[in-house]
Amino acid sequence: MELKGECVNGAHGTKEQDDFDPSAPPPFRIADVRASIPKHCWIKNPWRSMSYVLRDVHVVFALAAAAVYFNSWFFWPIYWFAQGTMFWALFVLGHDCGHGSFSDNALLNSVVGHILHSSILVPYHGWRISHRTHHQNHGNVEKDESWVPLPEDLYKKLDLSTRFLRFTVPFPLFAYPIYLWYRSPGKEGSHFNPYSNLFIPQERKLVMTSTALWSAMAILLSYLSFTLGPPLIFKFYGVPYLIFVIWLDLVTYLHHHGHEQKLPWYRGKEWSYLRGGLTTVDRDYGLFNNIHHDIGTHVIHHLFPQIPHYHLVEATKAAKPVIGKYYREPKKSGVIPIHLMKNLITSLEEDHYVSNNGDILYYQTDPQLSKTQLLSLAKSEW
To answer: Could you tell me which residue ranges the Fatty acid desaturase N-terminal domain spans (predicted)?
Structure first.
């Protein structure tokens, strides 16, 4: 087994941080964290949840109307960023439907989730099921589903162009559509294929339904492109979709990577649901916290995904005294969370793979991964 607390990338962080070993088994149980959260935080109010849907949908249509009205080179970039951000907000609400935190009504969750996710080209059940696997195995290098560290042997099998694309900004920020179709390196299956090993036989009809609705949205966009012209649809929908993908990849990556203090991953007997969940990271997104429904309160969300998003800030505040140093206070953001770009870039430069051996693991850095050399080699391969 590797030494606990060993960090192959250098120091963990500050001296105060070095005094605390984040891989040490916590002195509290998940039941203790649960008990610290006020009872009303567990209550799901479908009317309140629907009010957020109506709010976001209203903003989406208002932005589209404004784009039609102004139709100028000055306004289009504003529209693209704002509408892409709203697509991301819609995704988060559909994500809540998938967790069952939207309401206690499974049919309502499914209907709303399908409408929201299909509208932004996400296969609702296909993604919901794989995301459930991610939550059930967070922090487990063998079983986790989202942004999982590559073991060293698999990393060394990647061709140079794949390494370049995986670890060089901005390419990882466009990974999500590829992930939906092909998953991650070392994993097989597709979120659209009901016979994929992502799903059990009882889930196949659900996946078929979501794939059919995704296909209907893709056909609608194709029809609109044919009748109105591809440039117009690209401006109204295509560019905001790409902004949405950037948001999704940025947020999901930084909730599990890029903390100033290196955090452990686990395999085998050292992994537990609680220890894995405590390696997730909260983030402050400044102006966007409310817009994308406090998705930055990620630690409590990962431990208790059934808590509605509008109670996560209060639940986090209540749980912090129990979690103690295992909770890492997010760096305060300005209006725009530009500070997170440093975390992203540093992580992609340092966090390349984990050892093939051991049950407590920290990211290791490939010293040969020089961006200049890699780009040159990748070009020669292409």
So the answer is: 12-65
